[in-house]
Design brief:
It is a single chain. With 259 residues, the chain is α/β, with parallel strands linked by helices. The chain has a single domain, classed as Rossmann fold (3-Layer(aba) Sandwich). Helix content is 37%, strand content 17%. It contains six helices and nine strands. It has a seven-stranded parallel sheet, with helices on both faces. It has a two-stranded antiparallel ribbon with strand order 7-8. Strand 2, helix 2 and strand 3 form a beta-alpha-beta unit. The longest helix has 26 residues. The chain starts with 14 loop residues before the first strand and ends in a 10-residue tail after the last strand.
């Protein structure tokens, strides 16, 4: 990517890149970071939804939309180059882009759907983390923070969600590797595992979700804004402090004891 040493930026405001920022949790995080005074780069595949995120900004920070497909290595490289050319550094990457994929028994899942989920949820997160490492290692002051959006499915899968569950288990391994390799460069890497945040992705959960015993039961949800507040708090910690794993969930949802 040809990353050079970037000029020193002295500011309490951070440059934060949020992927999947056009809707749901990503939008909530971007808006909350803007409200906390940070400069947010909202990335996603659809320019129109990113524009809606920009319009929702509440300052004193701001949100800039940069459309990009995280599954495309060239697009990811171009995205990070735009960030460093414009702001000179990157302080935080929030790896949020993700899709749920098909809800089907494993023997009925099309290989194309499997690959689409893995490409978005895992490979996309890897490509963005790799690009962030290249910047954060060389910038001055050195270092930064990476937060991966995991899931309760990184610990316990829902029935008939093999691609999503596998991708989120793999995100845990990615997070641990980033955390280990980042120590030498003042890069703190962690993961937030979210249970039932109310978004377009989880719209059906409140009305009824397949359980391990085969029953369909509604589950409680939490506001995406609650998740966003935790992300804001995490990125404002000093880089000498890491939050390797954080779980936030609807208190009454069937997670403890699931299955």
């Amino acid at each position: 990517m040809g990353v050079n040493h970037y000029p020193r930026v002295v500011s309490t405001s951070k440059i934060v890149l949020v992927t999947g920022a056009g809707s749901g949790i990503g939008r909530a995080i971007a808006v909350a970071l803007s409200a906390a005074g940070h400069q947010v780069v909202a990335a996603g595949r659809t320019a129109a939804t990113l524009d809606e995120t920009v319009a929702a900004a509440s300052g004193p920070g701001s949100i800039v939309a940069l459309p990009a497909d995280v599954t495309d290595p060239d697009a990811v490289q171009a995205l990070f180059e735009q960030v460093t050319e414009r702001w000179g550094r990157l302080d935080v990457l929030v790896n949020n882009a993700g899709i749920f994929g098909p809800t089907l028994p494993i023997d009925e899942v099309p290989v194309a759907d499997w690959r689409r989920v893995i490409d978005t949820n895992l490979t996309g997160a890897f490509l963005c983390a790799q690009a962030a490492f290249r910047v954060m290692k060389r910038q001055d002051p050195r270092g930064g923070r990476i937060i991966n959006n995991g899931s309760l499915s990184a610990h316990v899968p829902r029935p008939e969600t093999v691609a999503y569950a596998a991708s989120k288990h793999a995100i845990t391994g990615l997070t641990k590797s980033l955390s280990l390799e980042g120590r030498a460069y003042d890069i703190a890497a962690g993961q937030i595992d979210i249970g039932n945040a109310a978004t377009e992705l989880t719209a059906g959960i409140a009305s009824g979700s397949l359980q391990a015993d085969g029953a369909i039961r509604p589950e409680p949800t939490i506001a995406a804004d609650d998740v966003a507040r935790l992300v804001v708090q995490t990125i404002e910690l000093p880089l000498s402090t890491n939050v390797p794993f954080l779980t936030v969930m609807a208190n009454a949802m069937p997670y403890i004891g699931r299955g």
